[in-house]
Design a protein that fits this description.
mainly alpha, 8 helices, 79% helix
Length: 137
């Protein structure tokens, strides 16, 4: 809660000190709750803020989240655009490659799952799998 207040004060004053204070509070919270994804997400955004520009720490937090499968789809927007903006092309390529590999595996698995549903005459599942596949594209 205190970090959000500091962010609000930063938005009114543009004083970088408030961002650093918010990061300090969140890092302290992360020390007590090392698996808290909300703290990690906010810290990633703050470390990638143009006034802070610490992409390595943001990448460390990203890797500690260990995003897999659908999480790559839903979370990569938190880090990818800022990595590109900061010129961290190798890191952004790694994140984008993981994202692309997820889509490749998902596409392959979807067709296999639909085929299995047809074999077992589960037409309702075929429609569900097809609809889910369309939502990810």
């Amino acid at each position: 809660m205190a970090a959000f207040v500091l962010l609000e004060v930063y938005s009114m004053t543009a004083d970088r000190t408030f961002l650093v204070d918010a990061i300090t509070i969140l890092e302290h919270g992360l020390a007590f709750s090392s698996f808290n994804y909300q703290i990690k997400g906010l810290l990633m955004r703050l470390y990638l803020h143009p006034a802070i520009s610490s992409p390595q720490r943001a990448l460390d937090l990203w890797h500690s989240l260990e995003p897999k499968s659908l999480q790559l789809e839903t979370l990569s927007h938190l880090i990818l655009p800022d990595l590109v903006r900061m010129g961290c092309f190798d890191a952004s390529l790694a994140v984008a490659t993981d994202h692309i590999n997820f889509h490749r595996v998902h596409t392959r698995d979807t067709y296999e799952t639909i085929t299995e549903a047809y074999k077992h005459l589960s037409t309702s599942q075929v429609l569900e799998f097809h609809q889910f596949h369309k939502t990810l594209l």
